[in-house]
């Protein structure tokens, strides 16, 4: 029998390699939560490449087993491109070069780009679109391009070792006089861009202070930055409650700050609010959130928190008041929420879920 040619050897080597999964994120730098999730997956089952994409920059990271390694960084010309068209072209070409078995992204637009690049399986959350191998003919081409993107799922992973309940007294964090024995801290996280409902939260907090401030010292902590931060600060100052609130701006110690909170509020449903709610639940906090969207799927009224109409500051204040008035209610709801996250949203559980999903969607070679 004749020995295999170099071409046959190369084809065999390519076939023997684990299937490639590409994750596309819009993060400016490495997505630490995604890296932690990949470390929970069985080493060697799949090859993973994380492509960071934004309108003006691209970066690329290879993950194999428990090791992450940079393999490509876009040049300065790409980073300086204002309209992002060059980045899209580079991303398209990169997908054509890498030929992944599956692409995983929360962007519907990038799913269309992946379809054009010939990626056979496109995963959006825990739902997928599949295409047969590209064949000649207008019907095959149209079926590939016109297959709709699938909606995102609630399968969000949380590092429950990083986000955990407070052990003992709250740490001495914040401006002087903000924390003291017996205070109740109402917290929120999110960009203060006017879309996350922080003005309604401040209004609800002021109503709560007027009704229950004499019974229990109340504090407000909002983590995030943006144009609404100045407006919220002005509202608090004009009501004489400036020293009762702390708006520290953007922080990289969110898990630590969540451990000084007693109740978590999510007054508006945004693409990021589901992750913040699950982080708060993992931290043992009850959730008071507006109704609708992912909030209604994550928060169980009367069990792990309360749901209120969006934009209704009075109803938000009344829901928060329950945790001020009823002793032990916040802890009971918070512990139930943490058990929910451990059962359905921990890194190990979500990694197993996605590994099984990849096994089902990617054909065995």
Automatic annotation (TrEMBL):
<dbReference type="InterPro" id="IPR050194">
    <property type="entry name" value="Glycosyltransferase_grp1"/>
</dbReference>
<protein>
    <submittedName>
        <fullName>Glycosyltransferase</fullName>
    </submittedName>
</protein>
<dbReference type="Pfam" id="PF13692">
    <property type="entry name" value="Glyco_trans_1_4"/>
</dbReference>
<dbReference type="GO" id="GO:0016757">
    <property type="term" value="F:glycosyltransferase activity"/>
</dbReference>
<keyword id="KW-0808">Transferase</keyword>
């Amino acid at each position: 029998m004749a020995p295999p040619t170099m071409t046959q050897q190369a084809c065999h080597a390519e076939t023997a390699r684990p299937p490639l999964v590409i994750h596309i994120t819009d993060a400016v730098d490495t997505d630490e939560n995604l890296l932690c999730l990949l470390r929970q997956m069985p080493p060697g089952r799949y090859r993973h490449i994380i492509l960071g994409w934004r309108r003006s920059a691209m970066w690329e990271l290879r993950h194999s087993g428990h090791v992450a390694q940079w393999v490509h960084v876009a040049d300065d010309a790409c980073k300086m491109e204002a309209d992002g068209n060059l980045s899209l072209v580079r991303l398209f070409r990169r997908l054509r070069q890498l030929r992944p078995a599956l692409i995983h992204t929360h962007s519907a637009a990038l799913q269309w780009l992946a379809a054009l690049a010939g990626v056979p399986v496109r995963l959006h959350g825990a739902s997928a679109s599949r295409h047969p191998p590209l064949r000649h003919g207008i019907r095959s081409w149209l079926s590939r391009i016109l297959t709709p993107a699938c909606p995102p799922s609630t399968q969000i992973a949380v590092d429950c070792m990083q986000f955990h309940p407070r052990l003992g007294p709250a740490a001495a964090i914040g401006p002087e006089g903000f924390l003291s024995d017996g205070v109740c801290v109402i917290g929120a996280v999110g960009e203060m861009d006017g879309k996350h409902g922080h003005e309604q939260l401040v209004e609800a907090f002021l109503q709560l202070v007027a009704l229950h401030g004499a019974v229990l010292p109340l504090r407000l902590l909002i983590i995030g930055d943006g144009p609404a931060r100045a407006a919220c600060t002005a509202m608090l100052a004009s009501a004489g409650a400036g020293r009762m609130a702390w708006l520290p701006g953007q922080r990289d110690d969110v898990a630590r700050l969540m451990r000084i909170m007693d109740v978590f509020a999510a007054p508006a449903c945004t693409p990021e609010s589901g992750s913040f709610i699950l982080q708060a639940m993992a931290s043992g906090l009850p959730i008071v959130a507006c109704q609708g969207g992912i909030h209604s799927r994550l928060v169980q009224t009367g069990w792990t928190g309360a749901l209120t109409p969006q934009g209704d500051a009075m109803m938000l204040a009344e829901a928060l008041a329950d945790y001020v008035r009823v002793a032990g209610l916040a802890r009971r709801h918070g512990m139930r929420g943490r058990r929910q996250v451990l059962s359905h949203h921990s890194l190990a559980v979500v990694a197993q879920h996605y590994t099984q999903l990849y096994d089902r969607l990617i054909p065995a070679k």
